[in-house]
Design goal:
It is built from nine helices and eleven strands. It is α/β, with parallel strands linked by helices and 242 residues long. It has one domain: Alpha-Beta Complex (Spore Coat Polysaccharide Biosynthesis Protein SpsA, Chain A).
Length: 242
């Protein structure tokens, strides 16, 4: 099975323009993500997929494989879809470009699970560890039953009406797709719930598609605004990486 690692990376973030190039302990953020992915066994090729010449230039300076894509994609799934139709593979492993702390072991778990199950669509999640994370609408919470995705929301779900003896869970930015899964996404208009929640993954849920889920153990955080950079640098120092 041929598997390609793809790291979508755009410059024009609304909340944090240019964040893939932000300096984290002396290296651009995209370098940290790429070097985590490089440690994973079973990926035949790895690419940063971007629409920006500045990101392309920095990638080339750091010997990072980079592929230029269109600049009108609505979200990362469209960008990965474009790459999937330019580079042939059995599965495409998407790793978010704004998670410089992502552990190679988490990506490896996804790769190994795809090989074991041949799943056409697989995404990872982790348990939330504190109330601040749980209440943060930037953390997309998930409801999972029998390792299948039931629902996603920006608010804490499920509601603890009868019991509090459960853990809230959130998406981690590692997902695996077949080309057909991506074709379905780009050819299907957003549904009502997707537009209300502003969560693209709901497109598969609203259309009754099976989404396999796997838990990973991670303390990774995504960089959503400049304040997050300080937290990431502190965690890198705690890990002894820098």
């Amino acid at each position: 099975m041929k598997m390609i690692g793809i790291i979508p990376s755009r410059y024009g973030s609304t909340r944090f323009p240019g964040k893939p190039l932000t300096n984290i302990c002396g290296k651009p953020m995209i370098w940290w993500v790429y070097n985590s992915v490089k440690q994973v066994q079973g990926l035949d090729e790895i690419y940063v997929a971007t629409d920006d010449e500045r990101i392309k230039t920095v990638c080339e300076q750091h010997n990072i494989n980079v592929i230029m894509t269109r600049n009108d994609h609505m979200n990362c799934f469209y960008r990965v879809h474009e790459v999937a139709h330019r580079i042939d593979a059995d599965r495409y492993i998407m790793i978010n470009g704004d998670e410089p702390l992502i552990e190679p072991s988490c990506i490896q778990k996804i790769v190994d699970e795809v090989k074991r199950t041949n799943a056409e669509f697989l995404f990872s999640y982790r348990k939330l560890s504190n109330p601040v994370e749980t209440m943060d609408t930037g953390n997309i919470k998930v409801v999972i039953s029998n390792n299948k995705l039931v629902y996603l929301s920006r608010i804490p779900v499920p509601c603890p009406h009868k019991s509090v003896l459960f853990d809230y869970k959130k998406i981690i930015g590692i997902q695996a797709f077949s080309k057909e899964t991506l074709d379905f996404f780009v050819s299907t208009p957003p549904g009502e719930i997707e537009q209300i929640e502003d969560i693209a993954e709901l497109r598969w849920v609203e259309n009754g598609k099976t989404v396999h889920c796997i838990e990973v153990i991670s303390d990774s955080i995504s960089v959503d605004n400049p304040r997050d950079v300080e937290k990431v640098e502190q965690m890198l120092k705690q890990r002894g990486v820098v």
